[in-house]
Amino acid sequence: MQTPTATEKTVVPVTQRFFLKGNITMSFDFNADDIFEMAEQLERNGAKFYRDASENVSDPQSKKFLIQLSQMEEQHEKTYQAMRAGLNEKEKAATVFDPEHEAVLYLRALADTRVFFQKTIDLKSMKEILKAAIEAEKDSIVFYLGMKEVVPEGLGKNRIDGIIKEEMGHIRLLSKELVAAK
Is 70 among the domain residues? Predict the structure, then answer.
């Protein structure tokens, strides 16, 4: 990797490190507030996926189920907003000096490109939609487990378990529907 110049910043997402001015490295941790913000965006993305899918299937029962899934994602977004509102000040505290809010922009971009938007899915096949949705839920759980590792105990690490539990419920529901799909 090239050493950045004095005016460049290079972000390495895997290690959450910023390289500044020569060889100076600044690591940072995320807090629970950051993770809940990403969770809310992922739920918005999921709701859009299910709404779009519902417009492409012809079976009225499948269409109804996909609309219900979209509404469920919207409800989960509200659940995460409520959970986020219940965080204490320490769990919301910034972990680094970030006057340009680059960490938040990075997190939003990560949430917008993960899970539902990196796949090519046949939106006319209910089985394919369900398989893709199960895969997306599994990906999101793995993502949250990884993010949990970069949130220190005092910054709300244990709060991420609530998100993971919600996503596991999605997998059970989708798996049951996939087994019943024709």
Answer: yes
Residue 141: which CATH number? 1.20.1260.10
Amino acid at site 9: K
Is the pTM higher than 0.85? The answer reads no
Count the neighbouring beta carbons within 10 Å of the beta carbon of residue 131: 16
Q: Any idea what the Cα angle at residue 134 is, between residues 128 and 135, rounded to 5°?
A: 90
Which residue range forms the structural domain that includes residue 148?
30-180
Q: What is the pLDDT of residues 48-99, one digit of tens each?
A: 989 999 999 999 999 999 999 999 999 989 988 998 898 888 878 776 666 6
Residues 6+ apart with CB under 8 A from 182: 126, 127
Q: Which residues contact 115 (CB under 8 A, 6 or more apart)?
A: 42, 45, 46, 136, 139, 140, 143
Instruction: Work out how many domains the chain is built from and give that number.
Output: 1
